[in-house]
Amino acid sequence: MDEAARAVVFCDLDGTLYTGHIWQALKRYYQARRMKLPTLYFYLYTHMAIGLLYRLHVCSEEYFFRVWAIHMAWLFSGLTPLQAQQVFDAVVEEDVLPQLRADVLARLREHQAQGEPVILLSGTFQPLLATIAARLGLDGALGTELALRDGRYTGRIVPPLCFAEGKVSRLEAYRRAHPEVDPAACTAYGDTHFDRLALEWAGRPVAVYPNPRLAALAAERGWPIVGSPQQSD
User: Fold this and answer.
1) Are the beta carbons of 208 and 104 closer than 8 angstroms?
2) 194 DSSP assignment
3) What confidence tens digit (pLDDT) does each residue in 175-200 have?
4) Please, are residues 209 and 15 in contact by the beta-carbon 8 Å criterion?
5) Are strands 204-208 and 187-190 parallel, antiparallel or unpaired?
6) First-to-last C-alpha distance (Å) of the chain
7) What domains does the chain contain, in order, with CATH numbers?
8) Cβ neighbours of residue 78 under 8 Å, at least 6 residues apart?
């Protein structure tokens, strides 16, 4: 990365650069290889129950998405970083790369051609996000850290989850480490209303295939919109 750069580009992953969902990619990986199936199904069924509570308005949408993302770390409990990296490599090659949004990736390449570093910013686990960034020739990744103990992942994350205000926490930490970066000159790409705070942090927010709430906010604020808005949240 050019340390003299003042403008940096931050791009979300699921729904923004990648049309799929990481949890679905992990599900396919473990099912195809018949690995960690008890943990996988326990994770899926318990969180489908929480999804039902959300639809019944017993819990908030944000709570549902938070616990879904945080508990996804269960899928790596007991694995060494090397073992987990084999999962990450396969998921990237088999699922993420075939489902990239070509138009969004082209915009990121344009930023790089103009000398602006591109950083992935997502709730996705940091080692997986860094693998995607490296595979695409991007300049870095800010994701959710997985907790380690005695050389194995514990099934927990290292707070904060890189989601909603957690993304801003990661952005502020990045800026402290790179004081030459000017948020007003930065660009941020996101696809849902949960990305609002990160988009507002940057001086150049862009809504990408936005859900209805983000599409409405982008129209109100005059933010650029890439792709067709989604029909539902």
Assistant:
1) yes
2) G
3) 999 999 999 999 999 999 999 999 99
4) yes
5) parallel
6) 35
7) 9-226 (3.40.50.1000)
8) 152, 153, 155
Axis crossing angle, helix 37-55 with helix 61-71, rounded to the nearest 10: 170
Tokens at residue 232, please?
Answer: 């539902």
Task: State yes or no: pLDDT of 172 exceeds 90.
Answer: yes
Helix (H, G, I), strand (E, B) or coil at 18: strand
pTM, rounded to two decimals? 0.93
List the one residue out of 92, 66, 74 whose CA is nearest residue 37.
74
pLDDT of residue 3: 46
CB 141 within 8 A of CB 164: no
- How would DSSP label each residue in 110-174? HHHHTT--EEEEEEEEHHHHHHHHHHHT-SEEEEEEEEEETTEEEEEEESSPSSTHHHHHHHHHH
The residues, any chain, with a CB within 8 Å of residue 225's CB and separated by 6 or more, are 206, 207, 208, 210, 215, 218, 219
The half-sphere exposure of 195 on its side-chain side, counting CA atoms within 13 A, is 33
Please give the DSSP secondary-structure letter assigned to residue 77. T
pLDDT interval class at 5 (50, 70, 90): low
Estimate to the nearest angstrom the gap between the alpha carbon of 30 and the chain centroid. Answer: 20
pLDDT at 1 over 50: no
**Which residues, listed in sequence order, are joined to residue 14 by a DSSP beta bridge?**
18
Residue 222's pLDDT band, with cuts at 50, 70 and 90, is very high
Quick check: 54 pLDDT over 80? no
Name residues whose C-beta falls within 8 Å of residue 125's C-beta, 6 or more positions apart in sequence. Answer: 72, 73, 76, 143, 144, 145, 146, 157
Q: What is the mean pLDDT of the chain?
A: 94
